[in-house]
Amino acid sequence: MSGAITCSVADLSVLLGPNATAAADYICGQLGTVNNKFTDAAYAVDNTYLLFSAYLVFSMQLGFAMLCAGSVRAKNTMNIMLTNVLDAAAGGLFYYLFGYAFAFGGSSEGFIGRHNFALRDFPTLTADYSFFLYQWAFAIAAAGITSGSIAERTQFVAYLIYSSFLTGFVYPVVSHWFWSPDGWASPFRPADDRLFSTGAIDFAGSGVVHMVGGIAGLWGALIEGPRRGRFEKSGRAIALRGHSASLVVLGTFLLWFGWYGFNPGTFLLWFGWYGFNPGSFTKILIPYESGSNYGQWSGIGRTAVTTTLSGCTAALTTLFGKRLLSGHWNVTDVCNGLLGGFAAITAGCSVVEPWAAIVCGFMASLVLIGCNKLADLVRYDDPLEAAQLHGGCGAWGLIFVGLFAKEKYLNEVYGATPGRPYGLFMGGGGKLLGAQLVQILVVIGWVSATMGTLFFILKKLNLLRISEKDEMQGMDMTRHGGFAYIYHDNDDESHRVDPGSPFPRSATPPRV
User: Fold this and answer.
1) Which region, left, alpha or beta, applies to residue 106 given φ > 0 means left and ψ of -120 to 50 means alpha?
2) Is residue 289 helix, strand or coil?
């Protein structure tokens, strides 16, 4: 704890006269007790803050589940919900056994951790159980992103295999590179041993979490191929719309909230993002200026504000952009735009000004719209736009930091370093931007080499894609024992509209 109370018997005894030594010893003992209480309280507050942030980030799993369920057709609802549950369950076990050790177990070469497997010799001087829980919540978020890209046509065993491999090995190695003090590209390394004198700045995971999950999903969807009926033989894209816009909106808001723990999540995801971003500080009781009202708590508040502004700007830009392109006001597009803004700001949420977050959100929306246009051109099918949203917007977020990071905030968050490179547009030169571009390239390369290979092997072993019959009937019925609820599927000929009738054959006209 900074500013600890100190007391010396020798100093006090000179001032106290008769029985000075005994009196001074008593006074110093009492002050020492008070000092220990303050230290204990600081640790308790910081750990409680980190635990609460971990709970918020974990709540994003509910957001992902609702978002995924609403984005797929009703006949695959149970399947996608089950995969979200297993992302957390399998991810928890494999991150405990291997993932945390690979990510934060300490290393000598900067590539991979090699201590604390199955939390052996844990807690350490630098990490407690709350830190493990928080990092596990991040790991399963990456796996949840990937599941959206390969939804509606993937065998259940493939989900189990890729989720375990991603959370137990692929993601932890990347987080070690950029978040562990030992990582080769970490900004926490000694000043004279950092990549381009700065290290890559990825505060809450635009690259470490979002790009990892998005690139993994990209390879899964590419190797698996599009869903049947998604593209005509001519190449024209056919929209296979999700069955519930209500679930999409609910999931978006939950993610929004969770993002405030991830950075500071749509509503279930919005909820989660308030744990995702501000929670990444991991501690709150750190003053920037002793004796003032300005400290880490101020940075946490600023992080929540930048997260909000980026998401809101991206949502509005997507709303009007898609209106110009399609002629419709589409709530699903707006929700994806909002999340794209969050994914982009996650890297720099703590080190940029609020006005810069608006720029980040605006550009993130354009990146998402452009990636979706490109996906249609190359006949790439991603039911949740996960690769475009998390991969594309995550990459833009890393570039954004290299352009707009502020020197003052970098020194507050990452430790004061004379001459530290900062954002190019803020007058800090191009070194930070160079480090950010290196991160983009190595994340793409690592995830492509590992997850691309895994999906290719699964395909060769006939463990990746379900049969055409199962895909047309829906996995809820063929793989999970029945539908999630009674519904009318637009793909079913028996429910198409009769000529001259405003109602499907099996529907009852609405009551007036």
Assistant:
1) left
2) coil
Q: Measured between alpha carbons, how far is 294 from 136 in angstroms, rounded to an integer?
A: 31
pTM of the entire structure?
A: 0.84
Locate tokens 């692929």: which residue? 170
Residue 185 CA: distances (Å) to CA of 111, 122, 389? 9, 25, 25
- Looking at the predicted structure, is the pLDDT value of residue 276 above 90? no
Are 257 and 272 in contact by the 8 Å Cβ rule? The answer is yes
CA neighbor of 279 nearest in space, from 297, 254, 252, 255:
297
Residue 10: C-alpha distances to residues 4, 5, 27, 334 (Å): 19, 16, 12, 69
Question: In this predicted structure, what is the pLDDT of residue 27?
Answer: 66
Neighbour count for residue 442 (Cβ, 10 Å) = 17
d(CA 208, CA 122): 24
What digits encode the pLDDT tens for the residues 368-418? Answer: 999 999 999 999 999 999 999 999 999 999 999 999 999 999 998 898 888
Which of 139, 165, 173 has the alpha carbon at shortest distance from 463?
165
Count CB-CB contacts under 10 A for residue 42: 16
Instruction: In whole angstroms, give the CA distance from residue 124 to residue 94.
Output: 20
Buried b (16+ CB within 10 A) or exposed e, 284-297: bbeebeeeeeebbb
Measured in degrees and rounded to the nearest 5, phi and psi for residue 415 equal 95, 135
**DSSP-based three-state secondary structure for 166:** helix
pLDDT digits (tens, 9 = 90+) for 197-216: 999 999 999 999 999 999 99
Q: Which of 502, 452, 401, 370 is nearest to 149 (CA)?
A: 452
Highest mean pLDDT among 147-156, 188-197, 447-456: 447-456
Q: How many CB atoms lie within 10 A of CB 366?
A: 17
Secondary structure (3-state) at 465: strand
3-class secondary-structure state, position 237: strand
Q: Does pLDDT of 126 surpass 90?
A: no
Measured between its terminal Cα atoms, the distance across the chain in Å is 69
Neighbour count for residue 48 (Cβ, 10 Å): 12
In the predicted model, is pLDDT for residue 259 greater than 70?
A: no
Q: Which run of H or E residues covers position 174? A: helix 171-179
495, burial (CB in 10 Å: exposed 0-12, middle 13-18, buried 19+): middle
The answer to whether the CB of 278 falls within 8 A of the CB of 304 is yes
Q: In this predicted model, what pLDDT tens digit does every residue of 315-374 receive, in sequence order? A: 999 999 999 998 889 888 999 999 999 999 999 999 999 999 999 999 999 999 999 999
What is the arithmetic mean of pLDDT over 98-123? 91
Cα atoms in the 13 Å half-sphere on the side-chain side of 497? 6
- Residue range 161-174, pLDDT digits in tens: 999 999 999 999 99
Distance CA 413, CA 85 (A): 34
With a cut of 60, say whether residue 496 has pLDDT above it: no
Q: What does the block give as tokens for 119?
A: 């939390």
